[in-house]
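WARN retry 2 of 3 for item q-0093 after timeout on previous attempt; input resubmitted unchanged.
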Amino acid sequence: MYTSPNEKVRIKSKDGVLSRITVFRNPLNHAPVVIIIPAMGVKASFYSPLAHLLVKQEFNVVTADLRGHGESSIRPGRHADFGYREMVLYDWPCIMSRVKMLFPHSPITILGHSLGGQLSTLYLAENPTAIDGLIMVAAPSLYYKHWPFPRSINLLFSTQIFHWIAKALGYYPGRKTGIGGTEATQLVGDWARVVRKGRYDMINKNLDYESCLRMLRIPVLAISFSDDDFAPKRPVDHLCQKMPNISLTRWHFAPENFGCEKLGHFWWINQSEPLADRISRWLTKVL
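OK item q-0093 returned
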C-alpha cells in the first residue's frame, strides 16, 4: 500500500501542555485537510492506515492525540487532572491554529472518532465557522435516556461507578476495566455527568451549548456500525438531531457492506480502504 511521508509538529496549548501532531502531506499542499481526533484511550497512531489512504485520495491529513495520550506531555494521575473543559477550550484551538498555519489555503474537516467526535461538536458550538466540514465516526449522544433499554441503565450505572473508582484512585484505570485508557478523574467525571444529565455546562457556564448546536450550519457526515455496542444507531441519531440546521449525510454500515465479519467500535479501522473511498467522495462533494 502507498504510504505518505509524515512529519511531527510540536504544539503547545494555552495552559502549557505540549504535544505533537503528525502531518501526512499530499504533494498538493493546498489540498483539503482532514484532522483525525481519536476516541477515548486511543493513540493517534491507531488511525495511520486511514490517514495514508486519505492522502492517496489527494487530501492532507493531520492526526492529533487527545490530552493525556500518545504524544501529549501530560499523564493523568493524582497530580495531573483535566476534563472536557481543557480539551475543548485549550487543545482544539491549539490544533486548529497550527493546522491553519501549515495549510493556510486549504479547507479543513475534522474527523472525530467517538469522544473525538462528541467534543468536536462542542468546539464547533463556540467556533461555528472554524472548519468547513465535520465527520463523526461512532460518536453517539451520551445521555442515557437516548439509549435503548437495558443498555441505557448499563451505561448510567457503569459510568457513575467508573467516576467513583477514578475519585478513589486519582485516575481511571481503563486498561483494567476494558473501557478507555488511563484517564483523568475530571474527564471521567465529565463523561459520567453527561451520561446522567445530558448537559455540557462543565465547559463554559456562560454558553448554552444546546442552543449553539441548534444554530450550527455545516456539512456533517455521521457514520455508525450495526455491531457497535458503544455507539448504537439511535444515540448517534440523537447527537445529529442536536444540530437540526446542519447539512447531514447519515451512513449506517453492517459488516456485510464491507465484506467482513465485524466493524464494531474500533475494528472498522481494519476496513479503512472502502471507508476512505466513501469519505473521499463525500468530501469532494461538499467542500
